[in-house]
Design goal:
Number of helices: 2
Number of strands: 8
Structural class: alpha+beta
Number of domains: 2
CATH superfamily of the largest domain: SH3 Domains
Helix content: 25-40%
CATH architecture of the largest domain: Roll
Radius of gyration: 24 Å
Strand order of the largest sheet: 4-1-8
Protein name: SH3 domain-containing protein
Shape: elongated
Distance between the termini: 40 Å
Keywords: Membrane, Transmembrane, Transmembrane helix
Strand content: 15-25%
């Protein structure tokens, strides 16, 4: 299959499709339906595996898939605020050791997590190997 990066899985799909072509000539309707369903399941599996690889899926839980900024909470409870201000509206909370993606932006002692989500930079620490 063109563009397929998972050689073994692509080989399996190719074999199944080739076998399905042989079966089409000889098989009754029920067998054709079963083969079509199996081919569909394999194709969905391949697409899911490729998507996981594109999203940084890895078998090694200790190795970060990316070096983008990610932080861990060091306080028992950490308020997430709408703006980088201690008096700003609370829009969420994190518990101790929770992890979150973050940006490099630190303003007024607050680290930006995303648009409208800020936490006190005193109570988060960058994960090892992450670029914060």
């Amino acid at each position: 299959m063109p563009g397929c990066e998972l050689r073994y899985t692509c080989l399996m799909v190719t074999k199944i499709v080739a076998r399905a072509r042989e079966v089409i000539v000889l098989a009754p309707k029920r067998t054709l339906i079963v083969v079509a369903v199996l081919v569909g399941v394999v194709i969905l599996y391949v697409l899911g595996s490729e998507k996981q690889q594109q999203n940084g899926g890895t078998n090694n839980a200790n190795a970060p898939a990316t070096t983008a900024c990610r932080v861990a909470v060091t306080a028992d409870v950490l308020n997430v605020r709408a703006a980088p201000d201690a008096k700003s509206q609370i829009v969420g909370k994190f518990r101790l050791n929770a992890e979150a993606d973050a940006e490099k932006t630190v303003q007024n002692g607050f680290r930006k997590l995303s648009e409208g989500r800020w936490v006190s930079n005193d109570y988060v620490k960058p994960l090892q190997g992450r670029d914060c």
